[in-house]
């Protein structure tokens, strides 16, 4: 004999097949037309009652779905392990594995496709609904199931599955784009590492003695490559030239400009060095700093398409007399450290090179004594952001210099100075600009 629930399903099914309209339990039931499948196409019906499965399957097939039946949670798990359905309709109360247990085990299956899970139950208490949601169910239907309500819940699940799969498709596109971007980034990163090696080759020696005197260099780009350049050269005994350059901007364009300037001020190929001139076809001599600045400015202005400019301090030194001749072109004021412990910033500022055509550059002379030292530095020092948000400024640089061990010289001094800079800089912002310096120690011829 059919139970009341089963009888209701049987009558409903018969009415749907005959196309008639009647009243059942006080609700109007009309014959259903086909339901166009969307994201949900394959439905798994799980119920220990064969009649219940048949009733559900009949409606689902009429609506255009592919239907698979299972009489237990264990059998359903085997089916799902082989091929994941789009929708599961599972009874709550079943012998062996209950619907809740099946739902929980089902969610543990590894699948790249999400499946909508509806529990069929006569339970309506909130704690029991919460138990089903915790197990992974998406929706509930109270038995006996209304055909209209079933269709409505499937439509809701279809929208969820559709949006999920659309999102998954977009995520795949994004992941592919990220993979492509990573490969491109790795290739660029590899090129930048090689570019840094080339840029470092522009400064073959970071410390060199010229008689009793010495010049040391510091070059710390804030990225793989930078826009700062330091260097030195000597055409013969007791004559030496050295410089500190900071190209505008950052990155590849600035680094390419430093490579060009490295050729203009080559320490190896004097015939290409604009700071030298050949005399009597026998030897090279240092040109005056003012003339060098004007030559570099005219060359940069003449190069169409180049928007970069650079600041510079270029100095030549007569190691016999101690006379220093220097030109300052928009670069920070050099710091002169006297042997008696006093210090002063020297220079007259000036205009950056490559900014304006025909601009004059002023040359200054400074008499150095044995034991005096001169520090050329980029604004990566003075514009370094401190923990309090302010910049180091020239006064802060002088304080760092005074903290260094006075017995240190050369490369040790520059390394100590840079280390002290890293101790006071803002941890949040770090090194925001390239840091470079040229340190000249005058100890006589």
TrEMBL record:
<feature type="coiled-coil region">
    <location>
        <begin position="164"/>
        <end position="191"/>
    </location>
</feature>
<dbReference type="Pfam" id="PF00072">
    <property type="entry name" value="Response_reg"/>
</dbReference>
<dbReference type="InterPro" id="IPR011006">
    <property type="entry name" value="CheY-like_superfamily"/>
</dbReference>
<keyword id="KW-0175">Coiled coil</keyword>
<dbReference type="InterPro" id="IPR036457">
    <property type="entry name" value="PPM-type-like_dom_sf"/>
</dbReference>
<dbReference type="InterPro" id="IPR001932">
    <property type="entry name" value="PPM-type_phosphatase-like_dom"/>
</dbReference>
<dbReference type="GO" id="GO:0016791">
    <property type="term" value="F:phosphatase activity"/>
</dbReference>
<feature type="modified residue" description="4-aspartylphosphate">
    <location>
        <position position="91"/>
    </location>
</feature>
<dbReference type="InterPro" id="IPR001789">
    <property type="entry name" value="Sig_transdc_resp-reg_receiver"/>
</dbReference>
<keyword id="KW-0378">Hydrolase</keyword>
<feature type="domain" description="Response regulatory">
    <location>
        <begin position="42"/>
        <end position="158"/>
    </location>
</feature>
<dbReference type="Pfam" id="PF07228">
    <property type="entry name" value="SpoIIE"/>
</dbReference>
<protein>
    <submittedName>
        <fullName>Response regulator</fullName>
    </submittedName>
</protein>
<keyword id="KW-0597">Phosphoprotein</keyword>
<dbReference type="InterPro" id="IPR052016">
    <property type="entry name" value="Bact_Sigma-Reg"/>
</dbReference>
<dbReference type="GO" id="GO:0000160">
    <property type="term" value="P:phosphorelay signal transduction system"/>
</dbReference>
């Amino acid at each position: 004999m059919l139970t009341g629930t089963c009888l209701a399903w049987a009558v409903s099914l018969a009415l749907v097949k005959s196309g008639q309209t009647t009243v059942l339990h006080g609700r109007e039931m009309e014959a259903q037309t086909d339901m166009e499948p969307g994201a949900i196409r394959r439905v798994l019906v799980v119920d220990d009652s064969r009649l219940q499965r048949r009733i559900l399957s009949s409606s689902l097939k009429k609506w255009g779905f592919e239907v698979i039946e299972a009489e237990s949670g264990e059998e359903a798990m085997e089916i799902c392990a082989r091929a994941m359905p789009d929708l599961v309709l599972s009874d709550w109360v079943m012998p062996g594995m209950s619907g809740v247990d099946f739902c929980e085990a089902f969610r543990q299956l590894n699948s790249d496709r999400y499946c909508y899970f509806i529990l069929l139950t006569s339970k309506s208490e909130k704690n029991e609904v919460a138990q089903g949601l915790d197990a992974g169910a998406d929706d509930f239907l109270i038995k006996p199931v209304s055909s209209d309500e079933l269709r409505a819940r499937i439509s809701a699940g279809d929208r969820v599955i559709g949006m999920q799969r659309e999102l998954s498709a977009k995520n795949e596109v994004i992941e592919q784009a990220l993979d492509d971007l990573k490969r491109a980034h790795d290739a660029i990163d590899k090129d930048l590492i090689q570019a840094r090696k080339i840029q470092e080759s522009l400064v073959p020696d970071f410390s060199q003695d010229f008689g009793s005197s010495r010049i040391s260099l510091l070059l710390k780009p804030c990225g793989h490559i930078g826009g700062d350049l330091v260097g030195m050269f000597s055409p013969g005994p007791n004559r030496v030239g050295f410089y500190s350059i900071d190209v505008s901007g950052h990155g590849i364009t600035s680094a390419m400009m430093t490579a060009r300037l490295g050729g203009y001020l080559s320490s190896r190929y004097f015939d290409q060095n604009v700071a030298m001139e050949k005399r009597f076809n026998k030897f090279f001599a240092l040109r005056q700093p003012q003339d060098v600045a004007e030559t570099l400015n005219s060359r940069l202005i003449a190069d169409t398409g180049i928007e970069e400019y650079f600041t510079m301090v270029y100095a030549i030194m007569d190691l016999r007399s101690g006379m220093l001749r220097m030109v300052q072109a928009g670069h920070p004021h050099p710091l002169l450290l006297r042997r008696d412990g006093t210090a002063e910033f020297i220079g007259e500022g000036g205009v950056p090179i490559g900014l304006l055509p025909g601009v004059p550059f002023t040359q200054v002379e400074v008499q150095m004594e044995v034991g005096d030292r001169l520090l050329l530095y980029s604004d990566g020092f003075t514009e370094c952001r401190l923990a309090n948000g302010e910049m180091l400024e020239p006064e802060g640089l002088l304080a760092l210099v005074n903290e260094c061990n006075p017995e240190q010289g050369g490369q040790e001094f520059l390394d100590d100075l840079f280390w002290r800079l890293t101790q006071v800089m803002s941890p949040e912002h770090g090194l925001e600009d390239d840091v470079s310096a040229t340190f000249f120690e005058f100890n006589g011829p």
